[in-house]
Specification:
Radius of gyration: 23 Å
Shape: globular
Helix content: 40-55%
Strand content: 5-15%
Oligomer: single chain
Mean pLDDT: 89
Largest sheet: 5 strands, parallel
Distance between the termini: 54 Å
């Protein structure tokens, strides 16, 4: 992975490169940024620059053999750790090493991919992965060995917020006192979910969401027209992975679910059959994987916000494009200052409980009944 292949983040690239050139490479680092901003790609490019002793920003100098190993994600002194769960192939005690081939394929195909994409790739989207003690011990054992090629050795922990408490605590001593020429690089989209004592031992580099023009440029390089690229870039809200997914026309049931949900909620007030339909809808969503449920709730939050913006006459700031016959302008008047805050809070609360393994059927049933009440609320007078 080359720095030149990574979209945006020029200031961070310059700072990281400057540290390597001056011989100031912090042994423990934490990359923080939103989903789809390219943290994993940046981490790989950075470790490649450190390990291969490249002489140029483009990684064209230095050790060509080392560079080829990085291109294949097979450098013997770099380890990857990521959230895992049991699937049809690994039926018990899942650890990162058991999925190494899946990981190489995933990163090569989706370098900006999300945790949701990774779970789908493994076929475990109905489960929530984690990084456990066995992986933490693997990190300690691997970094305790002598470097195979005599230079740097290190680990990239993707999804550091998925380290469970025992695993995070086990890593503390290694993070605080690593062997010489060791790089420990943690990556997270949720900094506050990383154990504080672990976080405090790392140098933090923060990355922002990608601007629309940068995302559009990336889409154009994939064959998208400039006009479509800019439209998709605005819709993606800084998430290049999402923009790329929309460009590739990846089918998503989220709009269909949303339309059915709000239309039934409109009818459900005082209508027993519509209430039963809402409960059936809730049961259907509850039958999907938890990561799918979380993605759907994020989708709903954004669509309600787009509706609010449209309602207040700021249509130029919205970039929603329906995949079906959903008319955002007709829906927008029902989203206003009298209900938006409570709707968003209900969605965020539902996300919180889903993430903590709450009963999905109960969570979505309660959310549906709440929406039925709130969608009929009148706007507040100015």
């Amino acid at each position: 992975m080359l720095f030149s292949e990574i979209l945006g983040h020029e200031a961070q690239k310059e700072s990281l490169l400057d540290g390597v050139v001056k011989g100031r490479v912090p042994h423990a680092q934490l990359f923080v940024g939103p989903e789809g901003s390219g943290l994993l790609s940046m981490a790989i490019a950075y470790t490649q620059y450190v390990f291969c002793q490249n002489t140029g920003v483009e990684n064209t100098g230095g050790n060509s053999s080392c560079n080829r190993k990085f291109e294949a994600l097979s450098h013997p002194d770099l380890y990857f750790v990521y959230p895992t769960a049991t699937n049809d192939r690994v039926k018990s005690k899942p650890v990162s090493r058991a999925f190494s081939e899946d990981w190489r394929v995933f990163v090569s195909e989706q370098p900006y991919g999300s945790l949701f994409d990774w779970y789908q790739h493994l076929g475990v989207e109905n489960k929530q992965g984690q990084i456990g003690v066995a992986d933490a011990q693997e990190i300690i054992n691997s970094l305790g060995l002598k470097s195979y090629e005599g230079g740097w050795k290190g680990v990239v922990v993707w999804g550091a917020d998925k380290l469970n408490m025992a695993a995070a605590n086990k890593l503390l001593k290694m993070v605080e006192e690593p062997p010489e020429k060791t790089l420990i690089l943690l990556i997270t989209n949720q900094e506050d979910q990383v154990l504080e004592t672990l976080r405090s031992r790392c140098q933090i580099t923060t990355f922002s969401a990608l601007p629309p023009q940068t995302i559009a440029s990336g889409l154009v390089s994939k064959g998208c027209s400039k006009e479509t690229a800019l439209q998709l870039a605005h819709q993606a809200n800084g998430n290049y992975n999402l923009a790329l997914s929309m460009f590739k026309n990846t089918e998503s049931p989220f709009e269909e679910w949303f339309v059915r949900w709000v239309r039934t909620a409109f009818k459900a007030r005082g209508n027993k059959s519509a209430v039963l339909e809402l409960m059936a809808w809730s049961q259907q969503i509850a039958g999907t994987g938890r990561e799918t449920q979380k993605q759907y709730l994020r989708y709903c939050i954004e669509l309600f916000r787009q509706a609010l913006i449209t309602n207040y006459g700021l249509k130029d700031l919205t970039h929603f494009v329906s995949q079906g016959d959903f008319d955002l302008e007709k829906f927008a008047p029902f989203v206003h200052n009298g209900n938006i805050f409570l709707i968003i809070k209900s969605l965020e609360d539902s996300f919180f409980h889903i993430e903590r393994n709450g009963n999905a059927k109960m969570i979505f049933s309660e959310l549906s009944l709440t929406l039925t009440r709130l969608i009929h609320t009148q706007p507040k007078l100015s």
